Predict the 3D structure of the following.
Amino acid sequence: MRVGAVAAAGPRVPGARRRLPHEPEGPVHRALLVAPFVEEDVDEFARHFPVDRILFGSDWPHGEGYAEPKDFLANVANFSIDDQRRIMYANAHDLTFN
């Protein structure tokens, strides 16, 4: 089983990570994917979760989301093209279809 934490992640991710079982590559850690809010630092998320567990998410059409979801690319500009693809597409695709 895999779980995507969308709109429940945010600033709580580092604290939640500390409360998970202490095996960093254990079953809970492998099962949890997180989606940072648009105003959050994705680089900071990557300090707590590997790129293959970070999801792109948009609250559009709500006010706290981007009107153009592609604008989120600016939040992942420091990542390699392959990592950007994972965050923006592949991780959600794998969570949904695999």
DSSP finds four helices and two strands in the chain.
